[in-house]
Amino acid sequence: MLNIGCHLSVSKGYKAMGEDALSIGANTFQFFTRNPRGSKAKEIDPSDVAELLEILKENKFATILAHAPYTLNACSADAKTRDFANMIMEDDLKRMEFFPNSFYNFHPGSHVKQGTQIGIEYIINMLNSILKPEQTTTVLLETMAGKGTEIGRTFEELKQILDGVTLDSKMGVCLDTCHVYDAGYDIVNNLDGVINEFDRIIGLDKLYAIHLNDSKNPFESHKDRHETIGEGSIGIDAITRIINHPKLRHLPFYLETPNELEGHAEEIKKLRGAYIDD
């Protein structure tokens, strides 16, 4: 079965996200833990969460994924910004225990001309100060397009972070198709080669999720602008190969395309039609 969903808003509540997912034919979803451009988080209502968890169980949902706010920059040159990132992630991971055994995804951040190595050390230090042996959440580093001074453009950079984290069993990677294509990994013409390179450098056992997005920009553009499925430079044929690839097909896929619920429903229907069931 294709495990696929999209990004949903938590504004109506947690149960409502489960209902929205079902309404568009999804069996997983992603959501922001708090305001994506700020710090305010929705108060957690345990009864609302319980109703969502029941929906997930009854409908055999794949693992859901929470996304950290974009304002979280663990490798900023500004100490206050790094402290803010630490505070937000620590609070988010406490909140995520309401949703046991879920994923929590974050952008590694931008080193702001300090240099990649310094930025990577900041990220490692934050993770080592926050991760707890008892947590059930797996924290995922997202592959990035390489815009500006972003860290995470290469598999080697992500590997350095993973190697530096003491509780490595709590860590993994979320591969964003738009980002890796814009970063220079040719998933259109050499998908097997990219997968093999990921496996050689990081290990496919660390790949837990895929953000499934087309790209508005051409290969190796480092632009990071998502497009609806089949309407960008990656294209439906390449995306079909991705969801059916024997080393990827078992993973959960999360759409972050520029669409509303109705549009996501059409994308999910199209992708389910292109998926070859075992």
UniProtKB/TrEMBL annotation:
EC number: 3.1.21.2
Residues that hold Zn(2+) 3 according to the record: 179, 224, 226
Matches recorded under CDD domains: AP2Ec (cd00019)
Domain Xylose isomerase-like TIM barrel: 20-272
Cofactors demanded by this protein: Zn(2+)
Role description: Endonuclease IV plays a role in DNA repair. It cleaves phosphodiester bonds at apurinic or apyrimidinic (AP) sites, generating a 3'-hydroxyl group and a 5'-terminal sugar phosphate.
Name of the protein in question: Probable endonuclease 4
Protein species of origin: Clostridium frigoris
